[in-house]
Amino acid sequence: MMKHILAVLLVLVLAVPAMAQNGPLRLTITDGVIEPITFAAPNFEAENAQAQQVASDLSRLVVQDLAGTGLFREVPATAFISQVSSFAQPVAFADWRAINAQALIVGAVAVNGQQLTVKFRLYDVFSGQELGDGLQFAGTVAGWRRMGHKVADAVYSRITGEGGYFDSRVVFVSESGPKDNRLKRLAIMDFDGANLQFLTDSSAIVLAPRFSPNGDRVLYTSFESGFPRINVLNVANVGRQQLQTAPGEMAFSPRFSRDGRQVIYSLSNGGNTDIYRTDLSSGQNVRLTSAPSIETAPSFSPDGSQIVFESDRSGTQQLYIMGANGGEPRRISFGDGRYGTPVWSPRGDLVAFTKQNAGRFHIGVMRTDGSEERLLTSSFLDEGPSWSPNGRVIMFSRETQGVAGSSTMYSVDISGRNLKAVPVQGGASDPSWGPLQP
């Protein structure tokens, strides 16, 4: 038990931020110990009257994004000694040090018709230095949320050294109706639940949507014909095409290759289920596994050279890795219970998975050689992990016992901290976290 506690402590914590007087503020996210970075974000300056409401809303969104990570903590405005009335005014660093603000975010917003301009600066309060050069983003008033997410991503990246994930979207299955007559349709939203749009109607069951690498298309499984078929949907115009299969074949669990030109998936024919790859332009199919067992849920490595998948070839549901062109797989999961739905991290160092053991479901991660397995969650039913663009956060489905089969989505940091529900109305499952938007 003591060894387990020590291991968890090493994984959960964050490294101490460097606050040297002669060095920049930096939060290194590794295996150390610390509290979140404290930051102050006065309301961004409205450079004209039309910008006042947008400036206030955008400032709050930046704070929500950063504080929502669990890595940052806002110093409330009621504690401020200084006020920032102009983007160009000098910073009174002593006043911000006095309230223990380690970072200061200063911004300005201008509106010209429907055009929006946002600029900001980030300061290390204790060293009295600006972190990087000031940035400016341009867009539309209607897209003010994206501008806020972009500012938050830039702040996050400059302090942690990692890529951000706020200016991204999630495609998922929206659910409604009773458990014995559940209606499902594809939906897309911002990572924080805003700007919800439906991509399909509820006339047919849809499962397992998966974003393309650049976010322009979505793969999903549809039962429109009565058998599972794989569709490719264009997000911009909701046009779609279907992967061709022979009569009696069932295709499911699709994912894009890293260049978006191919699809890997499971194909069931004559009671046998194997993994196939299809070229989207030519329609050419390649069979990658050939075994009497069930092989499914394939996921490419970031460099496209390997595939992780689940198989019951050993007698129980476990995880395996093989080359992108097939070949003899190697097993990587050896703990108690059953493993499924593996997904390779964008960083390439970890595989996320669903684990069922002793009547509980878990979302976990392990190294690609199967070492250092860590379970991040535990509940009646957790499943279907999906990585944030920077590989820091995992989103998944959770079904709560005794709530008529109601499913919602949660996210958790790969340290196991900051578990929280994703704000979305109604039932929701099968999230796929897309890339940063261009």
Quick summary:
This protein has 438 residues and is mainly beta. The protein is built from four helices and 31 strands. The longest helix has 17 residues, at 144-160.
Helix content: 10-25%
What is the fourth-level CATH superfamily of the largest domain? Answer: TolB, C-terminal domain
Q: How many domains, in number, for the residues?
A: 2
Q: How far apart, in Å, are the first and last alpha carbons?
A: 47 Å
Any idea what the shape is?
elongated
Q: Total helix count?
A: 4
- DSSP summary, beta strand count: 31
Which structural class best describes the helix and strand composition?
A: mainly beta
Query: Uncertain runs with pLDDT below 50, 5 residues or more?
Result: 1-23
Structure description:
- The chain is mainly beta and 438 residues long.
- The protein has two domains: 37-160, 3-Layer(aba) Sandwich (Rossmann fold), CATH 3.40.50.10070; 169-436, 6 Propeller (Neuraminidase).
- The chain is 11% helix and 42% strand.
- The protein is built from four helices and 31 strands.
- The strands form seven sheets. Strands 1, 2, 3, 4, 5, 6 and 7 form a seven-stranded mixed beta sheet that branches. The chain has a four-stranded antiparallel beta sheet with strand order 10-9-8-31, with no helix packed on it.
- Strand 13 and strand 14 (240-242) form a beta hairpin.
- The longest helix has 17 residues, at 144-160.
- The radius of gyration is 23 Å and the shape is elongated.
- Mean pLDDT is 91; it is low at 1-23.
